[in-house]
Amino acid sequence: MSFRSTFYRWPKDFPIPFILDGGTGTSLQARGMPSGVCTETWVDTHPEMIRDVQREFISAGSDAVNSPNFGGSSFSLSRHGVKPGEIPALNARLAGYSRAEADGSDRRVYVSGDIGPCGRFLEPYGDTPFGDVFDSFAQQAEAMDEYVDFWLVETQISLAEARCAVLAVKSVSQKPVFVTMTLADNGRTMSGETPLCCLLALADAGAVAFGFNCSEGPEIIYNSLKPLVPYAASLGVALIAKPNAGRPIENPDGTRTFSMDPDTYAGWMKKIMDLGVYVCGGCCGTDGRYISKIKELSEQLDPEALEIVPENAENIACTGSMTAEIPDDAADTAADVGSIDDFDDFADSVEEDYAALRVENMDDAENVIENLMSLTMPLCLTGDKAAADAVRRVYNGKIVYLG
Length: 403
Fold this sequence. Notes:
By secondary structure, this protein is of the alpha/beta class. It folds into 2 domains: 3-298, Homocysteine-binding-like domain (TIM Barrel); 316-401, no CATH class. 39% of the residues lie in helices and 16% in strands. The chain is built from 16 helices and 16 strands. Strand 15 (379-383), helix 16 (385-394) and strand 16 (400-401) form a beta-alpha-beta unit. Helix 4 (47-60) packs parallel to helix 6 (87-103) and helix 12 (262-274) runs parallel beside helix 13. It is globular. The two termini are 33 Å apart.
């Protein structure tokens, strides 16, 4: 069994193992970027700094560098006073700095288009419409597309926003999309979603690689990735680890360091790679020394010799925190949406660990979308595919469609 045959979504022209870069923000701060500034506008006036950071990572062995567009959405940039008409050009310039540094290397170096959180929560759980966030991410991605080789939707704290970002990027680009969530100490996202539900939902949205970055260091990421491996193998989705250098430590002089030195960090990264996680890098606190350790470990891997038994995930539906195996005959007992008078009563009457619904038209789809707060269990849909897809577009999880 090989890596490529197991994780079959992995791009054919990308090497494996694939070494990502380290902590861009902390590396920029070490070079003088003040705390609290808008990173994107600061980098735009100090492009030599981002190129120096990325030159360090490339020298250490990174196969890819991440463009400095983390806060490049219109929502994020507008909070720093960037005018709407300036946002696309700023995103293009930022991605161009990384492209120039990658192209200046004496070997092939890939550029990931960085998409970070926009700082808003989507309806119905927040106050921002799905379409507004979708349009913001699509605008950002369209401006960056010519400079990047793939996308990294990263440091996501909400599955709903991560899904929206993936769909938005895919609406304007054909390039592969990687996604990494960040985890709280309880092993869930900041919005309460479980790692398995995130994997299922983001694979369904079209991600080719999935994993975790930032968080409290490699131990929590190891513990979260380990149970995902058989499901990721079933879905063909490569797993990613990009942890912090341990926990942050606030020093008396106001500076911040991290709890893990490169050797301790490398010990955990070896355990992560031994799971079959071959897409690795670092996040906050990791500089070229940490990436060098990851590179050394990667040279010991054999992508042609994996032993992973896949766990079939095709018919698993999920919310952000619950999963359900959908039987093949679930459509036979699906409730007609048009006949449901009260969705709270309907939800209370469901005896299975999922709800099966028949949507026949776009009115049915809108009715389901308007009542998602009541439908808290995993969903199975049947009926009109266009109507089902309209629900799936905004659903915070994975819906199984049975036709």
